[in-house]
Design brief:
This protein is an all-alpha fold. Helix content is 78%, strand content 0%. It has 2 helices and no strands. The protein starts with a helix and ends with a helix.
Length: 50
């Protein structure tokens, strides 16, 4: 279980530190996309556990 959490933390950290540009620049939109994908994945995992 800890490995899964570490993987998600790594994915979030990687997305946030992608390049540090403001949110409405292309990189910011990519950040939004990445974080949305991470959130969707976490929701699927949560449903499997419950």
């Amino acid at each position: 279980m800890a490995t899964i959490i570490e993987d998600y933390c790594s994915a979030v950290r990687s997305s946030i530190t992608n390049d540090g540009h403001p949110p409405l620049e292309a990189s910011g939109l990519k950040l939004q996309e990445n974080l949305t994908l991470i959130e969707q994945s976490l929701e699927k995992k949560k449903k499997k556990v419950l």
